[in-house]
Amino acid sequence: MCGITGYIGYKNADKVLFDCLKRLEYRGYDSCGIALVQSDGIKVIKDTCRVKELEAKHKKVNSKIGIGHTRWATCGEPTAANAHPHSSCGDKVAVVHNGTLDQFIPLKEDLINKGHVFKSETDTEIIPHLIEENMKTMSADDAVKKALGTIQGAFAVAAIVQNENKLYVGKVGCPLVIGVGDSECYVASDSSALSKYTNRFIYLKDHDTAVLTPDSIKLFRNGKETEPEIELLDKNLNDAELHGYPHFMLKEIHEEPRVITTTIDDLDDLATLLATIDKDLGGIRMIKTLACGSSYYASLMMRYLAPQILGIPTFAELGSEYCSLTKGQKGTLAIAISQSGETADTIKAAKAAKANGYKLMAITNVKNSQLARAADYVWTTKAGPEVSVAATKTVLSQIAALYSLILAHPSLSKLNKEDAMDTFRKLPDQINKIFENVDSIISVASYLADFKDAIYIARGLNYPIALEGALKLKEISYIHGEGYAAGELKHGPFALLGKEVPVIAIVSHDENYDSLVTNLREVKTRQAPLIAISEENDLTISNLADYVITVPHTKPILSPILNLVVVQLLAYYTAVKKGNPVDFPRNLAKTVTVE
Ligand code: AGP
Question: What is the distance in A from the centroid of ligand 1 to the CA of 590?
């Protein structure tokens, strides 16, 4: 959580920093700030507001070096004093930090005993004071390096020092990337925040520190100066602009047809990776998935698909609840799924599984993420950067990747594969059809916006989509939504049903259809308003439901993908109707780097 940025070069640093911070706000947005090196010292401005409000208050400053931060409070409440940057006495050193420091209290007490005065409740504030203390006996370069070697915990840090035309950075356990320009360098928590400025990036590894000037990058790995490796990123895959859409969430949903096409294009590469895994494991005999939030709901798909189609027993575990009690046996594969690849709970579970003898595959949207680096095998979903806090296209990309794993598995017959591929290839057009018929979703959203609670139900493969639909509803429309396996309703949740609690049913036209219709009749008998997401021309459903949102016909096994798009749009338009801040819902951050 928290986004950090930095700039050194020939442009006005304040303008660049505000621009980058706006792209990093998805990482936290309870307060923000920037610090700029000026001829007469370091100027810090910060407040408990959004970046554009801070920018409006700020009077332009002629400075070419600065750092910036957007916060999701962990240590210390969201107040102006706790907002970053934090500075040392007399503002000689300023620091921005993403992460949490362990055992900082003794260090803080030691600094207080040495005469340092603290202004905030944060762990971060010890860093500028440590640097300043070190500078009493050494150069600024060494002082920063020593301070970053002293602190413990997870951090990505950028620092500036008065009278030094340099930008200092370092990291352990949190992401940090340097963007390389011509006579300028940028720093950010992720590369997409810098996509407008450069496509050349240096991804820092844990324990790396670097000293940046406009024309040089000195990288230290394990204390030794090392030649930095510059990676070129495809601009299209790093694009984080709105391109005329009112919200990133809508833009990202509209990218979903492209995500399916990209997944199909990569199928041969995935088959090659799977063949390697299969060979290394002597055949996959058991799968354990590890993930959190929407990624967990995506992972639930594998629990249905792999046993049904491949006969491989599969267990889906929440990263935050994983008890690593069982040892991995020969042939067991752990698949950790995370769009950011930085979710602390998922990484912890993945590392525990690995330590217990599981081979670890990561499915992530961020190639150089911590999760990717911890894994034996990595599959990168090419959904492109996702800015909206509510995950949409990345969830679809994870589900598409899991379908692809099934399709790529050598045990699937050629005939079955070709048949499934034909259906898969139709999905992008069918999703576009859902976009064309969005009016019915908008009108149901207007109706839904007046309720306080809603229940999603489904059976079988669409059950994970019911859970995801309810999460999306909570997350951005602030309606209390619950997802249930339809058969479970009568085991308790029935007590809630009535005119005030609408039920949204995802209808699967498969072997579960008849039982689901029975469940819908039971719902209607309790007078709950019924909204159905169903295929066109289903008279039984249109007679039963108060509202029907239709989806194009596909093979039942692939219906979760189309239904996913509908539940995402329904949550989006409900939130819009309520006037909520769709992309930045209250109390949330996109990347959850704390347990
Ligand atoms: C989804 O809309 C949420 N923002 C959240 O549940 C998210 O899926 C979860 O935090 C996991 O994130 P990850 O995929 O980056 O690991």
Answer: 7
- Residue tagged 């354990």 (tokens): 288
Query: Can you give the pLDDT at residue 327?
Result: 81
Phi, psi (rounded to 5 degrees) for 60: -50, 140
pTM, full prediction: 0.86
Which residues 6+ apart lie within 8 Å of 304 measured at CB?
A: 460, 461, 464
Tell me yes or no: is domain 3-236 CATH 3.40.228.10: no
Instruction: Provide the percentage of residues in the chain whose pLDDT is more than 90.
Output: 84
Q: Please determine, for residue 595, whether its predicted confidence score (pLDDT) is greater than 80.
A: no
CB–CB of 383/394 below 8 Å? yes
Report the separation in Å between the CA atom of 295 and the middle of ligand 1, taken as the mean of its atom positions.
6
* 147 neighbors 131 (Cβ within 8 angstroms): yes
Predicted local confidence at residue 325, as pLDDT: 66
Residue 484 has pLDDT above 70, yes or no: yes
Selection from 463, 457, 445, 385 nearest residue 572 by Cα: 445
13-27: pLDDT as tens digits:
999 999 999 999 988
**Does 567 contact ligand 1 (Cβ within 6 A)?**
no
Contacts of residue 183, defined as CB under 8 A and 6 or more positions apart, other chains included, come to 9, 10, 214, 215
Decide if 3-236 and 433-581 have a common fold: no
Q: Which amino acid is at 78?
A: P
Domain ranges in the chain are 3-236, 247-425, 433-581
589 φ, ψ (degrees, to nearest 5): -140, 155
Which residue type sits at 475?
A: E
CA 396, 590, 444: angle at the middle one, nearest 5? 55
Closest C-alpha residue for ligand 1 atom 13: 338
CA–CA distance, 126 with 131 (Å, rounded to integer): 9
Q: Could you give the count of Cα atoms lying within 13 Å of 426 in the half-sphere of its Cβ?
A: 13
SS (H, E, C) 257-276: HHHHHHHHHCHHHHHHHHHH
Q: How far apart are CA 7 and CA 573, in angstroms?
A: 37
Ligand 1 pocket residue status of 397, Cβ below 6 Å: no
pLDDT given at position 321: 93
Please work out whether the CB of residue 364 comes within 6 Å of at least one atom of ligand 1. no
* pLDDT tens string 259-299: 999 999 999 999 999 999 999 999 999 999 999 999 999 99
Q: Which CATH number is 247-425 given? A: 3.40.50.10490
Q: What are phi and psi of 98, to 5 degrees?
A: -115, 125
Environment class of residue 514 by beta-carbon count within 10 Å: exposed (0-12), middle (13-18) or buried (19+)? exposed
Do residues 179 and 86 touch, judged by C-beta distance below 8 A? no
**Any idea which residue has 């309810």 for tokens?**
470
Residue type, 411: S
Distances, alpha carbon 81 to alpha carbons 32, 86, 156, 364, 394, in Å = 11, 9, 20, 36, 36
Active site residues: 2, 590
Neighbours of 238 (CB within 10 A): 19
In the chain, count H helices and then E strands.
18, 25
Question: What is residue 226's DSSP assignment?
Answer: E
Alpha carbon distance 192, 204 (integer Å): 15
Q: Which CATH architecture has domain 433-581?
A: 3-Layer(aba) Sandwich (3.40)
Q: Would the CB of 314 count as within 6 Å of ligand 1?
A: no
What's the pLDDT tens digit per position in 72-122?
A: 888 899 999 999 999 998 889 999 999 999 989 999 999 999 999 999 999
Could you tell me where the beta strands, DSSP code E, fall in 253-338? 286-291, 314-318, 332-338
